[in-house]
Structure formats: structure tokens, C-alpha cells
Amino acid sequence: MITGPTSGLGAGYAHRYARDGYDLVLVARNIARLDELAAGLRAADGIDVEVLPADLADAADRAKVADRLAAGVQVLVNNAGFGTSGDFWTDDPVQLQAQLDVNVTAVLQLTRAALPPMLAAGSGRVLNIASVAGLVPGRGSTYSASKAWVVSFTEGLANELGGTGVQVHAVCPGFVHTEFHQRAGLDTASIPGLLWLDVDDVVSESLADVAKGKVISVPGLQYKVLTGALRMVPRGLLRALTNTMGRGRGRT
């Protein structure tokens, strides 16, 4: 099962798992794009594709997806998520709550639903798509906080699952060429080209890390170096650098 598969990283994982011969369950809000993606994957890879329309900001829809997971899947990719522009104190509280529900609550509930059948089978894998923003103080308050939760949740759960045959991983990409920033209304014109990653490279490198058993995957050499170096910088200085160089205002 892949959430948010109709564009960006979600589409990249869908195509990769389809090429690897997995049947897929695709979860997203846009039914037309879901159907188009499913038809293309069936034709190209000869796999079975189940389409499950759902808005993960909605409790009833999350429950519907959780019910499907309770029937069992081999792999769950918690990819759905979004950011917003604007400052925290001016953003619509309803939008902020929806972001929390998709980025955090859905990850918690869907992972909880997926694990019992995986544990009963003695095998399974959960990939939680986080972000470099979850590893360091980010430019955006709520988005960075949600991804930090995903990283911490994944690390703690990985410890709990040791020896069960079930694995959980957090993928922490940096800037990736997707629709994410455009949908969030974020200006990316000032971001250096060196910091941009391609979807296929992120997918390939993250799955290679997963195969090696790495709980945290940071695709891209530039981001491995960056996150490694930033971990050595005091948090106060890091926040100051983010504010000075990253223009910390104007996004959540």
C-alpha cells in the first residue's frame, strides 16, 4: 500500500514496486489521477492494482484505509503529506489541523493497523516518508515538527520490532523535484541547484538503504554531509543559521 501515489515520491515508489512485481493498493483523494495511474501500472507491469480513494485528513477515511490494512499487506509506504505557506499565527487553524492529521495521525493509525498481520506473518516493512526538515530545526514550524515526529516514532518503533521480522524505516529526503512546493505555495527560486534531488534517485537510494537495514535513510551525498555536519552544531546556532540563510518566516 502506498499513500499519496499520484505524483512525486509516491508515484516513484508506485512505479518501482510495480516493476519489482508487487501488486499495489493505491490511496489518494483524486480518483481520476488514481484511476489513470492504476491503468498505466496494470498495462506496463502486468500487476493487480487496487484503488482506494481516501482523504487522510478525514477520520472516517483513515478508518477505511486502516480496515484495508488489517487484511494484510507486505509493505506500507506512508508517503502522503503536505506543507503550507504563511506564518503559523496567520494560517487557517483548520488547514493546520489537516496537516497534522495527514502528516502525523495517519502515519500513526495506518502503521498501527498494518503491524498485527505483519507480525503474525513474521515479515513486513513500513516506510515512513519523513524529511531532512525532521532532522534539523527547519524553516517551517508545523511541517518540520510533523516530520521530526515521524523520525522519532520510526526509531522508537524499530527498537520495539527488533527480532520480529518486521522492519520500519524513515526516509528523509531534502528538496526533490515534485509538485510539493508548488502545492504548498512556497518560493524555491533561491534554492541552489546542488540541493535538488530527482524522484527516481531518492526512491532507488532509499530502497537500497532499506535493504541494508538502515532505519534512517538520507538520500543524496550532499544531504548526508549536511545533516552529519549540522548534528555537531549547537541548536541555538543552528536556529540562527536557519533564520539568516533559510528565511525562516513565511512557511509552516
Give the count of structural domains: 1
Largest pleated sheet: 4 strands, parallel
Level-1 CATH class name: Alpha Beta
The percentage helix is: 40-55%
Identify the CATH homologous superfamily: NAD(P)-binding Rossmann-like Domain
Strand content: 5-15%
SSE series:
EHEHEHEHEHEEHEHEHH
Would you tell me which CATH topology applies? Rossmann fold
Order of strands across the main sheet: 4-5-6-9
Number of helices: 9
- The mean pLDDT is 89
First and last CA, distance: 28 Å
**What is the global morphology?**
globular
In terms of topology, how is this protein built?
Elements: E1 2-3, H1 8-19, E2 24-28, H2 31-45, E3 49-53, H3 59-70, E4 75-78, H4 93-121, E5 124-129, H5 141-160, E6 166-171, E7 175-176, H6 180-184, E8 196-197, H7 199-211, E9 216-217, H8 221-230, H9 235-245
Helix pairs in contact: 1-2, 1-7, 3-4, 4-5
Provide an overview of this structure:
It is built from nine helices and nine strands. The relative contact order is 0.13. The strands form three sheets. It has a four-stranded parallel β-sheet. The chain has a three-stranded parallel β-sheet with strand order 1-2-3, with helices on one face. The chain has a two-stranded parallel sheet with strand order 7-8. It is an alpha/beta fold. Helix 1 links the parallel strand 1 and strand 2. The chain has a single domain, classed as 3-Layer(aba) Sandwich (Rossmann fold), CATH 3.40.50.720. The protein has helices spanning 8-19, 31-45, 59-70, 93-121, 141-160, 180-184, 199-211, 221-230, 235-245; strands at residues 2-3, 24-28, 49-53, 75-78, 124-129, 166-171, 175-176, 196-197, 216-217. The protein is 50% helix and 13% strand.
